[in-house]
Write a structure and sequence with these properties.
The protein is an alpha/beta fold and 147 residues long. The protein is 22% helix and 13% strand. The chain has four helices and four strands. It has a four-stranded parallel β-sheet. The longest helix is centred in the middle third of the chain and has 12 residues, at 58-69.
Length: 147
């Protein structure tokens, strides 16, 4: 930090400022507060579902598991985009980045965008319908996202 130069001085001039609403490029229409309180970033246990759950009813058992384990429910972008789960639950490149102790991925293809949000989890459990897949990334390559 340079030393203070006492030979220089200034004056604060306050000017009124107004702008017409017509000059604004954006307009506030409505504020919608989420009904769901989700803190995926601080959760120690996350149960996450993807498109392979088949629909919003497929998330009922995942929500029950998350509640039983004292964890949080998460979802892939595909599940959120389909309207099955609110955006607050999305994990991935366009959602939250998480680092839980346990991440349970159910019916998730393993797209790189989703992996970007959860790959630093301490333990990842991938549940899918192919018993020969070692992990969700391998399954994604084998099935091209169709789990």
């Amino acid at each position: 930090m340079p030393e203070k130069d006492t030979s220089k001085s200034g004056e604060v001039v306050k000017e009124p400022f107004t702008i017409a609403e017509a000059d604004l490029n954006a307009k506030f229409l409505e504020f919608i507060k989420s009904q769901v309180m989700v803190n995926l970033v601080e959760a120690d246990i996350i149960v996450s579902g993807g498109r392979g759950t088949g629909g919003p009813e497929g998330f009922n058992i995942l929500r029950e598991l998350a509640d039983t384990l004292g964890g949080a429910l998460a979802a892939s972008r595909a599940a959120v985009d389909s309207g099955w789960v609110p955006y607050e639950h999305q994990v991935g490149q366009t959602g939250k980045t998480v680092k839980p102790k346990i991440y349970i991925a159910c019916a998730i293809s393993g797209a790189i965008q989703h992996l970007a949000g959860m790959r630093t989890s301490d333990c990842i459990v991938a549940i899918n319908k192919d018993p020969d897949c070692a992990d969700i990334q391998e399954c994604n390559h084998r099935h091209r996202g169709r789990l």
